[in-house]
Amino acid sequence: MEGEGTRDPMFLSGVSFPPDWPIYNETLIKLSVYGVNDGHQQTTNFLGSSSFSVVDFLQSKDQQLSLNLRTADDSATVGTVVVSRLKMGEIEDGEVDHIIGDMHQKCTLVYESSHGSINDKDNGPIMNAVFKNAVCKVYRFQTVDSKWMLVREQMAECTLSFSIPKQLIALYIQEDTCRIQELKDLGELSPHWDNLRKDVISRYDQIIKEYQDTLAELEKLTGPSFKPSCSKGQKYLEFIPINLHTQRMRVTCPRKTDSFYDVVTVGAPAAHSQGFKNGGLQKLLSKYESEKKSYSTTYQCIYYPPEQTAKAREILSVVSQLQPHISALADQLLQTAQQSSRQPLRDVLKSLEEKTEQFVHALKDELVKSALLALHAARPGYVSKSQSSAPSSPATAKPHPSDSTEELHSVCNNVDGSKTPPRESRVSPVRADSIPHHKEYDEEEWDRVWASVAKSLNCIIALVDKLQEQDNNNQESAPSQTLADVITSHSPDPPVTSAVWRDQLGILVQSLKECVTEVAERAKRSVSFVLLQEAACSTAQGLQLQQRRDAVFSQALAALACGFVMRLYAGLEDKGFLRQLHAVGLVAQFESLLSTYSEEIGMLEDMEVGIGDLQRVTFRISEAASEEAVSLQPTVSGRRDRYTVEVPLPHHAFQALPEELREGKPLRVLPVLFNVGINEQQTIAERFGDISLQERINQKNFEILEGYYKSLTNTVPSECLPCFQMQTDIKELLDTLGQNVVTKKRKNVEILWLAGMICRRMNGIRFTSCKSAKDRTSMSVTLEQCSLLRDEHQLNKDYFVRALDCMRREGCRIENVQKNIKCRKYAFNMLQLMAFPKYYRPPDGTYGKVDS
């Protein structure tokens, strides 16, 4: 054991024995004590030792031994040490006995086995499916009323560190492969555009090849479920989050229900393998957009700003999803009309109307119309109006299939004897008045296409209305007959046979499907041409930026998915939390300790963009196929503009959820980022550099957090939120945070403390990050834990620093350091620590400059 070189040393170390260790009555246990002469140089000298047998200990009075420490030559006594036993049943239901070392009975640390005890509530089957290799520590601290609280700290790896990035890489490959096919489907282009298309396809091929190689390397990996900090620069691991761990603190106090506090620790999502010589994503993207304008002139392309290209991707995604859905609903409508009664028919028709409305709405955008014109101008042989004095002529494009289908007009006319549908159209045709005249383009063509979609759907609605009207007129006389029977036998109008009626509906359904297909194909080609122009205006830098953004987002999503799963598991029995989850979603608060100096500016810029991109992510809860670990792994679907993470739950847990969650409602998670640099580099930035990036991030994310709070209070009752001992309400904490983010104060860590408190008050997900989540992160996490013990569980203030040092010296965070760099030393030196805020400094003997 190590002790601080004082006149009244306290030895806060302890021991326990894993279940597989053979321990017998005659087993001897030896305690050795060393004095630290120089905490900075780490020189130590042996003070003394003592031994005892297990049987002597167990037979001692009150199971406590007072032992003399003897020098190495046994010539003198240098002190005493008291060894006592703590019964772990005081914390949990188990009867596991652990031996601890304790001097003066002021502050006690207990080592627990690395996998937790048998009855550990934090290590159930659900948790074990996703969280691995847990390290547990147990402490005993004194409260203000001289009672004892037991604190358990558990740190675990997460399987999502690798599984989420591997799924994402596969989705990147799939999306880029589809993009290549979409570019090929543009058809014949003029030589200029065809050459640009070939160049763009070549770039996509290059990305796909690199991603396939990376995925192949990741599939070979076995072993730990985390990437250590020393591997952050390895290229093939660039998609994997750095040092991702979960940490839970469970507190047991006399006569109180256990409380627990979670935090996810992860290295700042950043492209370490690509470096930060030219800055991070925020700076690089801004510079890239300004350069694209000049490249668009060089390559004779139309410049589309980021919001337009993002909209193009969204339109492409929506159309790809809705077209097959509408087609399937149309077929289902036809089958339902022939086989069932009116209500199922009405339900299917309603779904068909809703999806068609969404389809129409997605394609109303001016971007689609202008892109159609641009694509037409890129066809071979195109001659603009300014280049030709020939009079405009009608377009030679192939007419829409429905325009030449006389059966459609005939059926519509036969529905009620007029060409106008009997009720107001659900879907109105989109006018294209803004598309200019020129020799090769007919401005009415796009109008006719949309009119056909609207007319096809409205004819279906009219026919079903007519048939159901006849059904209603005859329902009392033939309540048991199907719709087809009523039409055949009881219609007051001239009889309509089932065969004729089916033929009419079949024609309309087929017409709608053909219209939607025609419109979808034209729209997809037009927005694909927009994306071709964006890619054509790109350089090699654009390719690298996409890869950088993909890697950073992958790290951020893995961390977010880990935090969401942990928070969901913890709240499965909390009805208020579940109500909040489906009503307004959760806030995910990322705390960053990066400086705004040198390379860490680039890391913070990467992190800001990566966390901002998480707004494109939704979650969905599903029922797992089984309770096997493989069935409980979250899965990712979607494409770069929008991803969904599906979290499966065992049958019993899923069935206990509110109906909204069981129905698969998309669940929103709102990410916010607050940064305060605390190291010596931040001192330089504050005195001689620029901290505007940090100030902008904090101000912007405060506004986002405040907006979420307003939505929360307007939607969810206050009783749904957790209760805390501190009576300060969330609004007051927000006001204080708002004041702090605009206050010019060096290393204002109160911003981080307030943001963390607000997050916990609002049932949010907490994340803490620095460069590698190893050193500064450890200081922050242990400080937060001890602050919670003081504020919420009456930790004696006289022992606050002692408890803080105890956690940093012997707790889970020093184990994290050991896992990362095989050394139990935080990577600080004395000069660095002089610049740290007071409570972020580790105890003497726990730090030294090492490779991190």
From TrEMBL:
Top-level taxon in the UniProt lineage: Eukaryota
GO CC annotation terms, alphabetical: cytoplasm
Biased composition (Low complexity): 384-399
Protein source organism: Cirrhinus molitorella
Keyword Kinase belongs to the record: no
Protein name, entry field: Type II inositol 3,4-bisphosphate 4-phosphatase-like
Bias (Basic and acidic residues): 400-409
Keywords: Hydrolase, Lipid metabolism
Gene Ontology MF annotations: phosphatidylinositol-3,4-bisphosphate 4-phosphatase activity
Transmembrane stretches, start-end: none
Start and end residues of each stretch annotated as Disordered: 383-434
